[in-house]
Design a protein that fits this description.
Blueprint (H helix, E strand, L loop, with lengths): L25 H31 L8 H4 L7 H7 L2 H33 L5 H15 L2 H11 L6 H6 L6 H4 L1 H25 L4 H9 L4 H29 L4 H5 L10 H11 L3 H33 L1
Length: 311
């Protein structure tokens, strides 16, 4: 049986075809592009994580004999952390901070702004969006300085506006001040995500619900929320993890007064660096990582359940 000659420019007869991807790089070329990124991930994520786990199983300190010759102690640091009142206090404060400023504050205010501005056009909308975004993009050190000036006991702007001279907000209401601060600072992300989600809600469905006599709350409950539930869960996952690991409150209160704002990142910082107990601090970091994983798994399961319901 006669065979047709190979096409011009094609592989020689009998040669195995080379595997190529859609970009035409081939396996070797694609690997060459991926390897640098994998090396960076290994150097800046994987290795530090493994090193932290190792440190958490030792009695390593910044000074003393343990700094020269650290000993392996296994899970003793974890057991010590679970029995430590400081760890329990910091965990409770962190959950309070996350719930108040992220889950309720940022998510709620971000949705409210996105909902109010959904049909608005012109300068007013751009001004509000710019003000919200400005709080998000400014460096944390700048924002902390502005809020210290705002809440200052003697010359604070807030006391001048409220005619309450002498009120030390960061001393008398430290956690409330941090929650309001973080809401103001981080609402922009929720606002942008919800604005994009609301743009996917068909206006015809809202109009139909309105003509049927549905109130604004009923429109939100029966039309809007079912369509953006996935966006809501994604937003809650991200802002919860970001807030759980946020160190910025340290710039305002330093964990005080009397450890009333000593959230977990601040507690780890003070334990590992101020106290010099790197091994114990690393063990607390591992526990913090596990808590983050639990939060992520819970949200991931809720998202998966939502997708299964949609099917």
């Amino acid at each position: 049986m006669a065979t047709s000659p190979p096409e011009p420019g094609g592989p020689p007869a009998g040669a195995a075809p080379r595997e190529r991807d859609a970009a035409g790089l081939g396996r070797l070329g694609a690997t060459a592009f991926v390897v640098p990124a994998l090396l960076l991930i290994a150097a800046f994520l994987v290795f530090p994580a493994l090193w932290t786990i190792y440190l958490g199983a030792t009695d390593y300190r910044l000074t003393g004999l343990a700094a020269v010759d650290p000993q392996f102690v296994g899970a003793e640091n974890v057991e010590r952390a679970l029995d430590d009142d400081g760890f329990t206090n910091s965990l409770g404060l962190t959950l309070q901070f996350v719930l108040g400023s992220a889950v309720i504050g940022q998510a709620g205010l971000g949705f409210a702004i996105a909902w109010v501005l959904r049909d608005r056009r012109g300068f007013g909308r751009r001004l509000i969006e710019a003000m919200v975004l400005l709080a998000w993009i400014l460096p944390s050190s700048v924002i902390a300085f502005l809020w210290i000036a705002l809440l200052d006991r003697d010359d604070g702007t807030l006391n001048a506006l409220l005619s309450t001279p002498g009120t030390a907000w960061l001393l008398e209401h430290p956690m409330l001040s941090l929650i309001v601060f973080n809401i103001w600072r981080g609402t922009a992300f929720s606002m942008m995500l919800y604005a994009a989600a609301l743009g996917n809600v068909p206006p015809s469905q809202l109009e139909t619900a309105r003509l049927a006599g549905a109130s604004s709350w009923q429109q939100l409950r029966d039309v809007v929320f079912p369509r953006i539930r996935g966006h809501v869960l994604t937003n809650l996952l991200l802002i919860s993890l970001w807030t759980f690991n946020d160190f910025t409150p340290f710039l305002l209160t330093g964990g005080g007064p009397e450890d009333r704002t000593e959230i977990m990142p601040v507690f780890i910082y003070e334990t590992a660096l101020f106290g010099g107990e790197l091994g114990f601090g690393a063990a607390i970091s591992v526990l913090m990582l596990l808590i983050n994983l639990v939060i992520a798994v819970v949200y991931a399961r809720l998202l998966r359940r939502r997708k299964d319901v949609d099917r």
